[in-house]
Amino acid sequence: MFKKILYPTDFSDVSLKAMDYILRMKDSGTQEVVIMHVIDRREFEHFEQGIAWVGELPADLEERFLLNATREASKKLQIIAAELTNMGFSVEIKLETGIPFNEIIKAEKEEGVSAIAVGSHGKSNVKEMFLGSVSEKVIRKSKKPVLVIKR
């Protein structure tokens, strides 16, 4: 039924819990999983505001921030990919930078997925109250079924 699943993750407990459900979908015919993480560029603004710095900030600070975020995310994505591969799935990794829900909807179209499996809440519930939940926006904008994993 759902041959190819898009699995966006922010590495929060709830998004990692989605793995259990994806593994169960193997018996229902799911063959491929696209694991996706989006580095939210807006997080740099929060990081930058929290820095106590004398003088001007280094010109390459954002570049270093994104490089570090990319390295960390890549390591975590590789671990998830290895686990899914060991369970017999064909796996693709997507690591993007942008606004998470926009990138998820874009990937849904580009990858031709059958469904999206997403955690109901991300890393910060307080942040979601102000910006709006990524999962809620994905549910509203997605053309494909969305499996929402609750806590």
Short description:
By secondary structure, the chain is an alpha/beta fold. The chain has a single domain (4-52, 59-149), classed as Rossmann fold (3-Layer(aba) Sandwich), CATH 3.40.50.
How does this model look, in words?
α1 links the parallel β1 (4-8) and β2 (32-40). The chain is α/β, with parallel strands linked by helices. α4 (100-111) packs parallel to α6. It has a single domain, classed as HUPs (Rossmann fold), CATH 3.40.50.620. The protein is globular, with a radius of gyration of 16 Å. The relative contact order is 0.24. Mean pLDDT is 85; it is low at 125-132. The protein has helices at 13-25, 42-49, 61-86, 100-111, 125-131, 134-141; strands at 4-8, 32-40, 90-98, 115-119, 146-149. The chain has a five-stranded parallel beta sheet with strand order 3-2-1-4-5, with helices on both faces.
Quaternary: single chain
What proportion of the residues is helical, as a percent range?
40-55%
What's the N-to-C terminus distance? 25 Å
Low-confidence stretches: 125-132
Name given to the CATH architecture: 3-Layer(aba) Sandwich
CATH topology, by name, is Rossmann fold
Task: Identify the strand order in the major beta sheet.
Answer: 3-2-1-4-5
Average pLDDT rating: 85
CATH superfamily: HUPs
The total of helices stands at: 6
| Tally of individual domains | 1
Beta content comes to 15-25%
Topology pattern, helix = H, strand = E: EHEHHEHEHHE
- By secondary-structure content and strand pairing, the structural class works out as alpha/beta
CATH class label: Alpha Beta
Overall form: globular
The strand count comes to 5
How many strands, what sense, and barrel or not for the largest sheet?
Answer: 5 strands, parallel
User: What gyration radius follows from the Cα positions, in whole Å?
Assistant: 16 Å
